Amino acid sequence: MVALVPPRAPWQPRAWRQALYLAGGIPAQLIGLLVVLVPWWLATGPNGQRLLGERPWLKPWPVPLLCLLVVFAALPALTALHRNRLRSTAGLEIPPQPGLPDRRTPAGLLAYARSAATWRQLAYHLVAGPVLGAAAIVAAWAWLAGLLGTLLYTYAWTLQSGSLLSRGQSSPPAYLRPIPLDALLTLLGLVLLAAAPRLTAAVAALDARTTRILLGPSRAEELEHRVEHLTQTRTGAVDAADAERRRLERDLHDGTQQRLVALAMNLGLARVQAQTAQQAHQALDEAHEEAKAALAELRNLIRGLHPVVLEDRGLDAALSGIAARLPIPVRLTVDVPRRPPPTVEAVAYFVVSESLTNITKHAQASQAEVVVQRAGDRLHVIISDDGVGGADPARGTGLTGLANRAASVDGTFEIASPPGGPTLITVDLPCVR
Q1: Residues 6+ apart with CB under 8 A from 426
Q2: Given the DSSP bridges, would you call strands 423-430 and 378-385 parallel, antiparallel or unpaired?
Q3: What is the DSSP string of 378-430?
Q4: Which residues of the chain have pLDDT under 70?
Q5: Please, which residues have CB within 8 angstroms of residue 362's CB and are 6 or more apart in sequence?
Q6: 188 burial type by CB count under 10 A (0-12 exposed, 13-18 middle, 19+ buried)
Q7: What is the per-residue pLDDT for 371?
Q8: Is residue 139 exposed (0-12), middle (13-18) or buried (19+ Cβ within 10 Å)?
Q9: Whole-angstrom Cα distance, residue 209 to residue 213?
Q10: What's the rounded Cα separation, in Å, for the pair 37 and 31?
C-alpha cells in the first residue's frame, strides 16, 4: 500500500513509488476524454477538412455523440479499472455503488441512464479524471525537470555548443546576469525536486478523494447499504444465537443430563439393593465415575461458552490450549501486541476453534496452521490445512455460522477450498467499533 502522506525527501523509495504509480495512472484518467475527442479531431481535422475522408456517418458533430455513447456503454469497465488502480497503487478500497439497475432490459437501461451514480461516473471519466490526469502530468514534469536541473553539471558536457543548457554558452536575463545560467537551472531543479514529493502526494490524495466521491456510493447510499447490512448481520446473529442455544440444549440433554440420571439411578440402587459393604462400595465407585464424567462434560460445555483462559490470558494461551488438544499437529502463530475488544477476541477464538474442529472431522488433514495477527485497527485470522478441500458453506459444516459470527462484529469471512485442497480461511475483524 502506498501511503498518501507526503514523503519528506525525494530520495525516499516511497516518494519514487508514489510518483511512478501516479504517472502510471495517467492513461486510465485520460481514456474517457480521449475516446470522445480523438475521433472528433480525426473527423474534423485541424483546418476543417476531414482526415478520414468524405463519409456521411463521419460528420463532425455526430462523432462526439457516438463516442459519448461508447463511454456510456463502457462505464462499468472504466469504473472497475479505476477501482483496481487505486486498490493496487494506493491500497484504497472503493466499494461499488449499490443498487445499480440491470442494463439488459430497456426499462433497466433507462433507469441506469437516469441514475445519479451513472452521472457521477460520467463526470469522473469525462471531467474529473482528465483534470486529475493533467495534474499528474504536472507532478511528473516536476520530477523530470527537477532531475534534469539538479543533474545538469553531470551531462552538460554532452550538449552541443550554443545549446541553452550548455555551460557558459547562454546568458540569463539582465536582472539575473550575476547568476550563471547553469547555476540558476541547477537551483531551480533542486527546488522542483524538493517540491515534487509533496506535489505528488497532494495530487494522489486529491485523486483518491475525488475517485471515492464520484465512483463510490454517495452518503445516502452508504447509509442505506449500512442499514441493509446491519439488518442481515442482526438476522445472522439471531440465527447463530438460536443455533447455539439448540446445541447447548442438545448437549445438556444427551450428555450431562443422562450422566446425572445414571448417577441418581446408581445411588438409588445402592441404597435399595446393597446388602454388603462390598456391594455398596462398588455402587459408590460407579457413581463416583459418573459424577466425574458429568463434571468433565460440564467443564467442556462451559469452556465452549466462554473460556476462562481467554478472558484471563488472551488469544495466545486460549488458542494454544485448543491446538494442544487436537489429534493433528497445529502450527500456531499469534502476534497481537494489544488485545482487541472482548467481543472481537471471542469471535476470533470461536472461529479458530470451530475451524480446527471442522478440519479434524472433515478435512482428512495431516496438519494445520493458524496465524492471528493484529495490524493497526484490524485483526487478521488465517487458518489453513493440507486436507482434501471441497469445503462449502452451503453444505453446512458450521461455516455459515462462522461467517455470521464474523459479520456480527462487521468482519469479513472468506474461504477458498478447491477440491483436492488445500483449504484457506481468512477472517478480518475490526478492533475499533
Answers
A1: 380, 381, 382, 412, 413, 414, 415, 416
A2: antiparallel
A3: EEEEEEEE-S-----GGG-TTHHHHHHHHHTTT-EEEEE--TT--EEEEEEEE
A4: 1-12, 40-64, 97-101, 156-182, 220-222, 224-226, 228-245, 247-248, 251-257, 269, 273-274, 299-307, 394-398, 433
A5: 387, 391, 397
A6: middle
A7: 92
A8: buried
A9: 6
A10: 10
* pLDDT value, residue 57: 45
- Kindly state the cell numbers that stand for 22: 501516479
The C-alpha atoms of residue 339 and residue 361 are separated, in whole angstroms, by: 30
Q: What share of the chain is helix, strand, coil (3-state, %, to 5)?
A: 65, 10, 25
Residue with grid cell 533542486, as numbered in its chain: 190
| DSSP H helical ranges for 74-180 | 75-89, 106-114, 116-123, 129-150, 152-155
Pairing of strands 378-385, 368-375: antiparallel
Continuous segment of H or E residues that includes residue 371: strand 368-375
For 411, list phi and psi in degrees, rounded to 5: -95, 175
Q: Give the neighbor-by-neighbor strand order of the sheet with 368-375.
A: 330-335, 368-375, 378-385, 423-430, 412-416
Q: What is the CA radius of gyration of the chain?
A: 34
DSSP state of 359: I
* HSE, side-chain direction, 13 A CA sphere, residue 419: 0
Length of the chain in terms of residues written: 433
**CA distances in angstroms from 367 to 337, 359, 364, 382, 386, listed in the order given:** 27, 9, 9, 14, 6
| SS3 assignment, position 10 | coil
For residue 270, give the C-alpha cell. Answer: 445402592
The closest of 433, 332, 329, 353 to 401, measured between CA atoms, is: 353
Neighbour count for residue 284 (Cβ, 10 Å): 14
**Residue 68 identity (one-letter amino acid):** L
Please answer whether residues 215 and 124 qualify as being in contact, where contact means their C-beta atoms are separated by less than 8 angstroms.
yes
